[in-house]
């Protein structure tokens, strides 16, 4: 399928020189008597690099063979993370290196969106919020309030976040997967 830069929207997927990109920003620019151009910022779905590119408004751009599938994260073996397709029950493996920091917020059995380019996994999109157990932190002290300071805490997935002083080991907290920030305590051990 082919589209023109006039059809660009934020998040639209395009293929440039055989690589899939997502439109981050776009701006239609009319130059005096010449034709209109579209200035864009595009993020590579393979490397994560952002490039700037200007297109003529009548240029034809290919849409990538890109698909998102709902899958369930099953387990990891230290090197690879395994996901199961919710419809066909097929399993795929994605390396820890390709996933990056999101593994810190990925508990087993989590439903995720796996992004495929030419039937090969290129990324995983987590839900915006996940609930994770605190497995290691300094003990909370009676009288600590929500407005006080923060302390480091280790999550059941192996990642670390900053939490308020009143959070204790065993508490379950809601974490924003986009920036790794503490949102609220969901369940307490007491």
Strand content: over 45%
- The assigned structural class equals mainly beta
Strand arrangement across the biggest beta sheet: 9-8-7-10-11
Mean pLDDT: 87
Number of helices: 1
Which regions contain 5 or more consecutive residues with pLDDT less than 50?
none
Whole-number total of structural domains = 3
Assign an overall shape. Answer: elongated
Structure summary, number of beta strands: 16
Roughly how much helix do the residues carry, as a percent range? under 10%
Using only C-alpha atoms, the radius of gyration works out to 21 Å
Protein name: Elongation factor P
Subcellular location: Cytoplasm
GO biological process, one term: peptide biosynthetic process
Main location: cytoplasm
